[in-house]
Each structure stands twice: as structure tokens, then as C-alpha cells.
Amino acid sequence: xxxxxxxxxxxxxxxxxxxxxxxxxxxxxxxxxxxxxxxxxxxxxxxxxxxxxxxxxxxxxxxxxxxxxxxxxxxxxxxxxxxxxxxxxxxxxxxxxxx
Length: 99
Prior knowledge:
Layout: H1 2-11, E1 18-19, H2 26-35, E2 39-40, E3 49-51, E4 61-62, H3 66-79, H4 87-93
Parallel strand pairs: 1-2
Antiparallel strand pairs: 3-4
């Protein structure tokens, strides 16, 4: 991820970027993206597990809804000194507006 962020900085300085982790390690991406100056997104379509115990696979905790995943990622972002964005703020960051 560090390589990709550095390359983006070379090619498009000041670009806004987002990391989205899917598969086995979604929270590693959610943790690193804010630390590296980016944003992250999550929802149940990316990851259905709120907690994954890779040693005892029968102890995985399913996320009851996207809000539980979003709350976990927001807490991770705050630990990196970043704040989550509302839907309206996200649209503003991207230069978009609701139709």
C-alpha cells in the first residue's frame, strides 16, 4: 500500500484516494489508509465479518449490518487522528452532488 500511495503522489500530487479491503484482511486496509493520508470505506458487500479469528475459524463474528463495520472502521480512523465523513461530506470531498 505504501508503494501505491507513493506512486500516486508522484503521478497526481494532492489526489484524494480511498482504500477498501475485501477478503481476508479488510481491517488491515482500513487501519493503514487513514495513517497514510487516505480514506477508507467498508460495508457488508466488502466484508461480512466484524471479527475474524484466523486460528479458530468457528469463532468468526458476523456483522449484523453495515453500520457495525462502519463503526469499527470509524474507531480505527479516530485512533489515527482522522474523523469519519458523513455522506454529505464525502460527496463534497469528491466534488459531487446529489441528483
